[in-house]
Design brief:
The chain is of the alpha+beta class. The chain has helices at residues 2-17, 39-59, 93-105, 107-112, 114-117, 167-178, 182-188, 217-229, 231-237, and strands spanning 28-35, 66-70, 83-90, 128-136, 156-163, 195-201, 207-214, 248-256. It has two domains: 2-131, Alpha-Beta Plaits (2-Layer Sandwich); 152-256, 2-Layer Sandwich (Alpha-Beta Plaits), CATH 3.30.70.100. It contains nine helices and eight strands. The chain has an eight-stranded antiparallel beta barrel, surrounded by four helices. Helix 1 (2-17) runs antiparallel to helix 3. The longest helix is centred in the N-terminal third of the chain and has 21 residues, at 39-59. The two termini are 23 Å apart.
Length: 262
């Protein structure tokens, strides 16, 4: 964990010193994906996130942290995947660059997270952490809190990644969401989106990612049936300028943990 903290702090400082700007305006999102092997590791990660990390992030002014797990045996997920997804929305590059130093000074965080933070090398709490950074889309500059009423255990959070053949082609798909108002279409059809973002650092670039949410699997399927037959989508997807702008679509079906803010 501390090596990860040092890496992202160094990355943030380097990018800021070189004049790089994550985004002109809008949120910055970080998705941390914990890879683990055992139920014992899962328990340690859950306890750390619930009792230490989320409360510390709240004290630091980050109001909503999403914590999700793969929905087993659902199309798009591999049953053997042992993953925990953590979605962190930052309001600015400054907020992102300063968060790790704030956590390092938070004594309550250090104490509550001691089992995880001070784990011995012979008993690591996870196998690896994957991290993805994203800029919010211009058309949807801020994250949303889903308006769902049903039990968390039944909910479907659909995380999609659209990869592009080249940077230019990937930008074209993002333009389809912004200028083509695919974002507006999702909103009109009630997809309860959490975020839309362009990946600026991650393992499958160039790509964009977004997350939509539903009460359950049947609700999810009904929404997509409506989307596919919507007259505006048929018109938009047929436009010549938006053809062949996705090389791979990876879809993950998740559910929120009991302690998730989102």
């Amino acid at each position: 964990m501390r090596n990860t903290i040092m890496l992202f702090s160094a990355l943030a400082i380097l990018l800021l010193n070189t004049g790089f700007s994550f985004a002109a305006k809008g949120d910055i999102y970080q998705i941390k994906i914990y890879h683990y092997s055992s139920s014992a590791q899962e328990e340690v990660i859950d306890e750390f996130l619930e009792k230490a990390y989320l409360p510390a992030m709240h004290r630091a002014g980050i109001d909503h942290i999403g914590v999700f797990k793969p929905r087993a045996s659902t199309e798009g997920n591999k049953p053997e995947e042992k993953l925990i997804y953590v979605l962190i929305p930052f309001g600015s590059q400054k907020e992102f660059s300063k968060i790790e130093s704030k956590l390092a000074k938070d004594e309550e965080f250090q104490s509550a997270g001691a089992t995880y933070l001070d784990a011995a090398y012979t008993n690591p709490p996870y196998d690896r952490i994957e991290s993805i950074l994203l800029n919010a889309f211009e058309k949807n500059p801020n994250y949303g809190v889903p308006d769902l009423k049903g039990p968390k255990k039944d909910r479907i959070y659909e995380l999609r990644s659209y990869e592009g053949h080249t940077e230019k082609i990937s930008k074209n798909k993002i333009k389809m969401f912004n200028d083509g108002d695919e974002v507006g279409l999702f909103k009109r059809l009630g997809f309860n989106a959490v975020f839309y973002g362009e990946v600026i650092s991650g393992p499958t670039m160039p790509n964009l990612m977004y997350m939509t949410t539903f009460e359950n699997k049947a609700d999810r399927d009904a929404h997509w049936d409506t989307f596919r037959t919507d007259p505006y989508w048929k018109e938009l997807s047929a436009l010549p300028q938006y053809q062949n702008n996705v090389s791979k679509n990876v879809t993950k079906f998740l559910y929120p943990t009991d302690y998730s803010d989102l």
